[in-house]
Here is the input.
Amino acid sequence: MDELIKQGVPAEKIRVVPGLASSTHDEAVLVKDYATAQGVRSLLVVTSAYHSRRALRSLRQTFAGTETTIGLDPVPPGSQTPSPAFWWLRLEGWRGVGGEYVKLIYYWLKYG
Here is the structure.
């Protein structure tokens, strides 16, 4: 929220979805429940590039049949988002990106 305000988004335009999520799927369900209750017609999700495929798929599956449009904007590489060219050179890259591929396969099997 602080970063959005620093970037010029008015505080009154920022909404924090209530609830706790332990997975990307759980988070998608919470966001859908909130968006449906509030009449939200479009969402822009900001996440790391390596997580964007699973996040977008989870959100689109969860929002299927609703009138809410989902968009995604991955953040540029930085301390929490490994560079596409060099992630494999660091242990954190293998944990993040490598682990994401394991999760992606799991999500395909579990959620279709």
